[in-house]
Amino acid sequence: MADNKIPSAAGARPVTTASRLTTLIPGVLLCIGVAGISASLEGVERQVFAHPYVEALVMAILLGMAVRSFWKPSERWQAGIAFSAKQLLEVAVMLLGASISFAAIAASGVTLLAAIAAVVVVALCVSFGLSRMLGLSTRLSILIACGNSICGNSAIAAVAPIIGANNDEIASSISFTAILGVMMVLGLPLLIPLLQLTATQYGILAGLTVYAVPQVLAATVPAGLVSTQIGTLVKLMRVLMLGPVVVGLSLIASRRQGGTKKTSVGFFRLVPWFILGFLALATLRSLEIVPSTVVGPVTKITSFLTVVSMAALGLGVDVRVLANVGGRVTAAVTLSLMLLLGISIALVHWFK
Q1: Which stretches are transmembrane (predicted)?
Q2: Residue 274 contacts by C-beta under 8 Å, 6 or more apart in sequence?
Q3: Three-class SS state of 74
Q4: Contact yes or no for 163/139 (Cβ under 8 A)
Q5: 298 in a structural domain
Q6: 6 found inside a domain
Q7: Which residues constitute the domain of residue 341?
């Protein structure tokens, strides 16, 4: 029988699955604690005002950021925080598929797909041009354009090896993603009353503008299940645009290199496992293999995991990092996001 122990550095103790899980416990418990406080505060709001003005999800982000401002978690906490911010939220996205039927967006059909593709293409072109106008390199401009227009760090990670981006360019392009992602999650729901958006309109807006699939879930949960379903599906369609973009950049890079160097990107880098899981569960739900009685409990589990993950996200954001980001990169990323938001707001008024 094969040994499941993975040898570490010489003289170090072998790493087992159990020891890995043990390293996650402190950070995960910390995130659950912040999430529990947030949920309790929301409960107090419900008792006093009959309606929570600040959802537990938002409060978890703010509390996490507040803790991070005066205390930097040591290495002991980091593994669990990172796991909660990424893996737990990806599980939540996957489970959301069990509550979605593809019939929910059948009415929008080809029109919505064409609109999403058009927004991505326009945002890519204008973001790239804007970055170049600000004096950024071609490779850095491509990373910023793909990150803002498609899916944040995932797009940057997929595109970087194809265009031969160096570590400094990658770090510069993703440095603002965490903070702007949190700002979008917190600020986007404010547009619902301001622009008088319907649940479907807000879902489309969130799906078109928020960086990552899990962040779309966080931004739409306070607006209701319809917005969450529509937003997640729109975002998944937007993520699928990464495939053609990567293929196009690969062809361009191959021609420039004279065909001497081949750069490939694995399927699971373009389509993460949790998106495949989401689509699989959505398919089972659409075929009524997943019964409607399951939707309620799954939704509650999804909401709980999302709050825990938002606490972890807040704990991982240091607002002081803004001082270390170059002014031109900051301007390019921020202006690109504002441009995408403006285009998306104009588009959602077509989907009433």
Answers
A1: 21-41, 47-67, 88-106, 112-130, 142-164, 170-192, 204-224, 236-254, 266-284, 304-322, 329-351
A2: 90, 91, 93, 94, 213
A3: coil
A4: yes
A5: yes
A6: no
A7: 17-348
